[in-house]
């Protein structure tokens, strides 16, 4: 009887192990989908799929917002595909800013490595703003989907590393969503309460039309 029970448990254990898939390295040669990339064949997976060196290089901050984000998402780092995690590097030149934006697919944790960063988010329930100046070693969390921002609060460059609770966190920057498109200015004026001159100026700066 005891031998029969042990045999049954060994079969269950074997089947359980057989069903476990340790990882799903993304096959970047195939289309992406809301569920992520399809898995590479195990024979094609190498250690390099689980290593990403891009966050050691500073991003180009000579942009309109004087900021650069270097992502290590599934599209750049196939080893995180399906694991529910990813990272990015944030470089902010003096006066640099990441405008109000949201990550529809992930919560975010930011840790300041260099300089000072003013960061905050707005709650969706009562529009309350939570913001603080962060210094080296400080960490702040931004709940999934909420509008948030980062501003260089010091006189020198600032650096932070960011982690996300998804390999594909998504990104929508509010300013670009409103003014870097072909939505007619008349509509934007109505939904933002800005006048025609302000809307057209912002469209001109951010590349929008109409």
TrEMBL record:
Residues 53-200 form the Cupin type-1 domain. Residues 1-18 form the signal peptide. It comes from Tripterygium wilfordii (Thunder God vine). GO terms for molecular function: manganese ion binding. Its main location: secreted. One of its GO terms (cellular component) is apoplast. The lineage of its organism: Eukaryota, Viridiplantae, Streptophyta, Embryophyta, Tracheophyta. Oxalate binds at residues 103, 108. Disulfide bonds join 24-39. Transmembrane segments: none annotated. This is Germin-like protein. Keywords: Apoplast, Disulfide bond, Glycoprotein, Manganese, Metal-binding, Receptor, Secreted, Signal.
